[in-house]
Amino acid sequence: MAEELHSVQMEEDELLVSHDVMSLFTSTPVKESFEVIRERLQRHLEQRYTTLLEVDDIMELLEFILTTIYFCFNGQIYRQKFGTAMGSPVSPLVANMFMQHIERKLLDTAPEDLKPKLWKRYVVDILEVVKKGSVKKTHRVS
Description:
Low-confidence stretches: none
Strand order of the largest sheet: 1-5-4
Strand content: 15-25%
Oligomer: single chain
Structural class: alpha+beta
Radius of gyration: 19 Å
Helix content: 40-55%
Order of helices and strands: HEHHHEEHEEH
Shape: globular
């Protein structure tokens, strides 16, 4: 990313803005993530060399993994009801797929005057170059 930033020419009417997604795993909506993942799996059916499982089988397993999350705190067992579990190997994949979906939707539908000149994301950190004054407009839109 540093190389790409080195080549970006900032204009006087532009800002470099940094965002951080808070609590990504526990904030990732599971139901909406299922829809995103199912659509993506169906779109890439030709990549069958990775597994012999059908899309419905994968989705059933994923639902089981993401909806049966228990953890212990102060000797008490709790069930997590929202988001993906921190520490689960599947959580980063699900959260990243959902973030890609939201990101694509945002960038594809943003009005021309609000589209960032540069948009880079690494896990939960986002860096963008935007016109001055567009940050407040963007926050109002979302």
